[in-house]
Amino acid sequence: MKFYTIQVYKIGYTIHLANCKLWLRIFWWYDRMKNGDIMQNYENEVRERFGDTEAYNEHKDKTKNYTDEKWFALADEMNAIFKEFADCKNSGAEVSSSEAQVLVAKLQNFISENYYTCTTEILKGLGQMYVVDERFKNNIDQHGTCTAEFVSKAIEIY
User: Fold this and answer.
1) Which of 36, 38, 62, 75 could form a disulfide with 28 if both were Cys (CB 3.0 to 4.6 A apart)?
2) pTM of the model
């Protein structure tokens, strides 16, 4: 992780449509801007949109005692998963391959174990957001061009 080029925040969000409902995914994410107001804006947006949802409350409860070290470790693990997707794509594997589908299951399990219950429906919404929201697309694509698209398509057929 290049600390001199990025600012790390505990809370980022992914909003996605799942049966016409907005859901929330809060996780430690990278943002290239070093402005404390951005962190506060993320927190305010998340709380305003999702403060009364089950996913928000589960995440809040599950992560309330996480230390900075835990957040850093989780960020590294999430990046490692996206790097595995990039490697899978670069090996020539198809999104429907067993290798890609194992990675989708790994991502879903990682989210569920560390943040909130990530149902298949929620996961599919996340996959859409990985390509629709430039913030997430750019972060995932740091592991390789079109990695976000590969992840999204792999999730779509999961």
Assistant:
1) 75
2) 0.74
